[in-house]
Specification:
The complex is a heterodimer of chains A (about 220) and B (about 500). With about 220 residues, chain A is mainly β. Chain A folds into 2 domains: about 1-20 and about 125-195, Tumour Suppressor Smad4, CATH 2.60.200.20; about 20-115, Tumour Suppressor Smad4. Chain A has no helices and 18 strands. Chain A has strands at about 5-10, 15-20, 25-30, 35-40, 50, 55-65, 70-75, 80-85, 90-95, 105, 120, 125-130, 135-140, 145-150, 155-165, 170-175, 180-185, 190-195. Chain A has an 18-stranded mixed beta sheet that branches. Chain A is globular. Chain B has helices spanning about 50-60, 95-100, 105-125, 170, 185-200, 210-220, 235-240, 250-260, 290-320, 325-355, 360-380, 390-400, 415-435, 435-440, 450-460, 470-490, and strands spanning about 15-25, 30-35, 40-45, 70-75, 80-85, 90, 140, 145, 155-160, 495-500. In chain B, the strands form 3 sheets. Chain B has a 5-stranded antiparallel beta sheet with strand order 1-2-3-5-4, with helices on one face. In chain B, strands 6-7-8 form a 3-stranded antiparallel beta sheet. A two-stranded antiparallel sheet of chain B has the order 9-10. In chain B, helix 10 (about 325-355) runs antiparallel to helix 11. The radius of gyration of chain B is 31 Å and the shape is elongated. Mean pLDDT of chain B is about 80; it is low at about 155-170, about 265-290, about 405-410 and about 495-508. Classes of the chains: A mainly beta (about 220), B alpha+beta (about 500). The interface between A and B is large, with 42 and 39 residues.
C-alpha cells in the first residue's frame, strides 16, 4: 500500500503534488511545517483538514475557512467549490472524472506551493491522464489516456500499446515502486516521492541530491 | 514530445531537472531547481552554437520588468551550453489568445500590448532586435507581460535556405523585408502588429497551407482589416505596412497609438494623432523588378541550355531502345525536336509574361494553346505535310516560285486530316492545359518540382483520347521531357528565408 506524497512531473504539461492519504492537512509552508499541502500564503501552519470518506471529501476547518464565500466549520465539498483559507488564499476543488473518487485542488495565483506545481491531486484509486476533457491531468498530445493506479508494490500504469518504465519496455500494463520515469511515444512523465519536510533549508554546497524538493504551481519559462 | 533529460537528472552542476517545459528551434527548455532552492528555466543548447551565445551575452545584463531575465550562460561537462533564465509561473500569450477565439477583451489587449511594447522598446534602446516575437515567446505572469527568447534568434541568411525547415509558427510574424535579408528593428514592429491583430481577432492576418504561401502573403497580400474594431484599423494597417519606412518609427509610438485607439479621448482633434495609410495605397514592391537586359540575357541562356539538357535526357531513352536502326534514330530525332520546340515556346512565352506583371491565367492558357498548335503544325511540316494553302502563301510572301514543303521520304507520311487535326489538338490542348509558368517562375518553391512533370504526363495521357496514333506516345514523352527541361534551365532564386538551426535531440 502506497502512502504519502509524490511529485508527478509531466513533460510539456506541468507538475502536480499527488497526495495518497485519505486525510490531508493544508497549512502554511514553513521549515518546520508539517502540512501535507504547504502553501506560500498568510495562513496557519495547520489551517484545515481534508478527509476522503465514502460520502466524498469533507473539509474540517481549524482556522477561518469559507466555501463559496460562506464561513464553515465542517462541510462536504462539491465539484467547483471555491475554498478560501484565511483572507485571500483560494483553492478550487474539482472532481474532473465522474467515475473516479480522485479529486484535484487548484491554487489561485499568486499563492503557490514551494515548487512550481500546477495543482494538487488527491488520489483515491486511480488518476486519469489523457487528451479528453474529463481527466485529472490533460495530455493534449497523447493519443490515448494513461491510467495511474494504486498497486500493492507502488503504482500501476495502464496504457494501450507500448511504453517504457525506466527504459524497460511494457505493453498495455506495467508497475513500479515509488520512483520512475514513464514514457510512451506521445507522452513522458516522472513520479518521485516527496521526502521529509517541504521547505528544507538549502543544502548549500552539498552537491547533487536529485528529487528532494517538492512543489508549486504554474507553467512557463521561455 | 521526447526530452533528453528527465526528472532528477543533473546535467548542469548545481541544478536538478524537474520536468521538460517545451522544445523550440534552439533546443529544449526545462524547469529546474538549484541546490539553493531557486526555480529556473534551463535552456539546453546542444553543440557548437557560438554565434547564438554571442547574442545571449549581449542580453545577459538587461534588466526590465517586461523581459524574462537571463541569469547566466554555462557549459556542462559534455561541452553543451545552457542558458539559465527566470522561470515564469504563468501562461504564454498564445494560450490566452486561444482562450479567446474571437479576440481578447479590449482592455486586456491594451494592457498586454503596453507591456510587450515596453519590453521590446527596452531591447531596441540597447540596439537589440528581437527577431522572433510571437505569442508563444511572450508570457503573462500575474497580469504582467514578460517577453522571452530574445538574444537567441539568429537568422542564417540563407540564399539557399528552404522554407521546409522553417516552422510555420514563426512565419506568421515575419516581416516582408526579411526575405531581402536587409532588416532592422522595424521587423519587431511588424511582428507586434501581427500579434496585435491576433489579440484583437483571434486569428493571424496571413494564414496559409505552407510556409511559402504565408511568406508570399506577407510580401503581397493586404490584411483584412474589416475584422478589427474600427479604431484599431489605421493602427494595425500602419504597423503592417509592407514598406518598413511607412510603419511606426518606434515601439513607443506604436504603443501610444494602441493606447489611445478607441478611447473616447481620441475621437479627437484632427491633427494630433497621425492618421495614416489608407490601405488603398499601392503596395510597395518588395521584390525589385529585373532589368530587361538581365531578362533577355537569362532567356538566351535558358534557350541555349535547353538543347543540351534535352539531348542528355534523350540519350538514355535511346539506349533503352535496343534496335537502334535508322527508324530508331529518326524517332529519337523526332522526340528531340518536339521536346525542344515545346521547351523553347514555353520559355519564351513565360519570360515575356514575367516582365509584364499580372496576366490572367486564361489568357496565358489561350496563348500557350495557340503556340502549341503552331508547334504541332511545325512537326507536321517537318514530316513533309503541308497545308493546302502553303503554296499560295509562299507565292504571296516570296512572290515567286511555289515552294514545295520539305519532303523527306524517310519520315512516315502523315496524310489523313484526322491525324492532322488530332495532332494540332494534342499540342494545343497540351500546352494550354498545364500551368507552365509555374515551372519557370523564378521564385518557385523548389528548383525542381515533380508535380508539374506528373501533370504533364497526366494531360498527355488524357489527350490521347483526341489523337490515337503510335506517334502520340512520342509526343506524350516530349511533354514530360519538356516539363523537366523547362525547370532545369529556368533561373531559380528562392525567397530568402531565415532558417533556424534544427533542434538535435540526444537519445538517451
Amino acid at each position: 500500500m502506497t502512502a504519502g506524497r509524490y511529485l508527478l512531473w509531466v513533460d510539456g504539461v506541468g507538475g502536480f503534488l499527488v497526495c495518497m492519504g485519505a486525510r490531508i492537512t493544508i497549512g502554511q509552508a514553513a521549515p518546520e511545517g508539517a502540512a501535507d499541502v504547504p502553501l506560500y500564503a498568510d495562513i496557519s501552519r495547520q489551517h484545515a483538514r481534508l478527509v476522503r470518506d465514502s460520502e466524498g471529501y469533507v473539509l474540517e476547518a481549524q482556522r477561518p475557512v469559507r466555501i463559496n464565500g460562506r464561513p464553515v466549520d465542517v462541510a462536504l465539498l462539491h465539484p467547483g467549490d471555491l475554498v478560501t483559507l484565511g483572507t485571500s488564499c483560494r483553492l478550487r476543488f474539482s472532481q474532473p472524472v465522474p467515475i473516479s473518487a480522485s479529486a484535484r485542488l487548484d491554487i489561485e495565483r499568486p499563492h503557490r506551493l514551494p515548487l512550481a506545481l500546477d495543482g494538487v491531486l488527491l488520489m483515491a484509486e486511480s488518476l486519469v491522464l489523457g487528451p479528453e476533457a474529463q481527466v485529472h491531468v490533460p495530455l493534449p498530445n497523447a493519443l490515448h489516456s494513461v491510467i495511474l493506479f494504486r498497486d500493492k508494490e507502488g503504482f500501476g500504469v495502464r496504457y494501450p500499446g507500448r511504453f517504457w518504465i525506466d527504459g524497460r519496455e511494457c505493453r498495455d500494463r506495467g508497475r513500479f515502486a515509488g520512483r520512475a520515469s514513464v514514457a510512451g511515444t506521445d507522452f513522458s512523465l516522472s513520479l518521485e516521492p516527496v521526502e521529509g519536510s517541504w521547505v528544507r533549508q538549502p543544502q548549500l554546497g552539498s552537491g547533487s541530491r536529485p528529487g528532494q524538493r517538492a512543489d508549486d504551481s504554474g507553467e512557463g519559462g521561455s | 514530445m521526447r526530452f533528453t533529460w528527465k526528472t532528477g537528472d543533473r546535467p548542469l552542476e548545481g541544478y536538478t531537472i524537474k520536468r521538460g517545459i517545451g522544445q523550440g528551434g534552439f533546443g529544449e527548455v526545462y524547469y529546474a531547481v538549484s541546490d539553493g532552492g531557486k526555480e529556473v528555466a534551463l535552456k539546453f543548447l546542444r553543440g557548437n552554437i557560438e554565434v547564438e551565445l554571442r547574442g545571449v551575452s549581449l542580453c545577459l545584463n538587461l534588466k526590465h520588468p517586461n523581459l524574462v531575465s537571463i541569469y547566466d550562460v554555462r557549459t556542462d561537462s559534455q561541452g553543451d551550453h545552457w542558458v539559465i533564465m527566470e522561470y515564469i509561473v504563468g501562461e504564454p500569450l498564445s494560450a490566452v489568445i486561444q482562450r479567446h477565439p474571437t479576440g481578447m477583451p479590449l482592455d486586456l489587449v491594451r494592457r498586454c500590448f503596453a507591456g510587450l511594447a515596453e519590453g521590446v522598446a527596452c531591447l531596441h534602446e540597447h540596439g537589440i532586435v528581437h527577431r522572433d516575437l510571437k505569442p508563444s515567446n511572450i508570457f503573462l505572469e500575474n497580469g504582467r507581460i514578460k517577453v522571452g527568447d530574445y538574444g537567441l534568434s539568429k537568422f542564417i541568411n540563407a540564399s539557399h535556405g528552404d522554407a521546409q525547415t522553417q516552422s510555420v509558427g514563426t512565419v506568421y510574424y515575419m516581416a516582408p523585408e526579411i526575405s531581402s535579408g536587409n532588416y532592422n528593428k522595424q521587423i519587431d514592429i511588424y511582428a507586434a502588429g501581427v500579434i496585435l491583430y491576433e489579440m484583437l481577432t483571434g486569428h493571424v492576418p496571413f494564414d496559409g497551407e505552407t510556409a511559402f504561401e504565408i511568406l508570399m502573403k506577407h510580401l503581397t497580400a493586404v490584411p483584412d482589416l474589416s475584422r478589427l474594431p474600427a479604431d484599431f484599423r489605421p493602427v494595425v494597417a500602419r504597423a503592417l505596412a509592407k514598406n518598413p519606412a511607412h510603419r511606426y518609427a518606434s515601439m513607443a509610438e506604436l504603443a501610444r497609438a494602441v493606447e489611445t485607439a478607441g478611447q473616447p479621448a481620441t475621437m479627437a482633434p484632427a491633427g494630433t494623432a497621425p492618421r495614416y495609410l489608407p490601405p488603398t495605397e499601392p503596395l510597395p514592391m518588395v521584390l525589385p523588378p529585373l532589368s530587361t537586359a538581365t531578362q533577355l540575357g537569362e532567356l538566351a541562356g535558358s534557350l541555349a541550355l535547353a538543347p543540351l539538357v534535352i539531348a542528355a535526357m534523350c540519350a538514355p531513352v535511346a539506349a533503352l531502345k535496343r534496335d537502334i536502326g535508322q527508324a530508331g534514330l529518326l524517332w529519337i530525332g523526332d522526340l528531340f525536336f518536339q521536346t525542344l520546340a515545346l521547351t523553347w515556346v514555353v520559355l519564351a512565352a513565360t519570360k515575356f509574361w514575367s516582365s509584364r506583371g499580372k496576366v490572367q491565367s486564361l489568357s496565358r492558357r489561350g496563348v500557350l494553346a495557340a503556340l502549341g498548335a503552331a508547334v504541332g503544325l511545325g512537326a507536321l511540316w517537318l514530316k513533309g505535310w503541308t497545308p493546302p494553302w502553303w503554296g499560295d502563301l509562299t507565292v504571296l510572301v516570296l512572290g515567286g516560285e511555289r515552294l514545295p514543303g520539305p519532303t523527306i521520304s524517310a519520315w512516315p507520311g502523315v496524310t489523313t486530316s484526322e491525324d492532322v487535326i488530332g495532332r494540332l489538338c494534342y499540342f494545343g490542348l497540351g500546352l494550354g492545359a498545364i500551368r507552365w509558368w509555374t515551372m519557370t517562375d523564378r521564385h518557385r518553391s523548389h528548383r525542381f518540382m515533380v508535380m508539374p512533370v506528373m501533370a504533364a504526363g497526366f494531360w498527355g495521357l488524357l489527350l490521347l483520347l483526341f489523337w490515337r496514333a503510335d506517334e502520340a506516345m512520342t509526343s506524350l514523352l516530349a511533354f514530360v521531357l519538356s516539363a523537366v527541361a523547362v525547370q532545369v534551365v529556368s533561373p531559380w532564386e528562392p525567397l530568402v528565408v531565415p532558417v533556424r538551426r534544427p533542434a538535435r535531440i540526444r537519445c538517451v
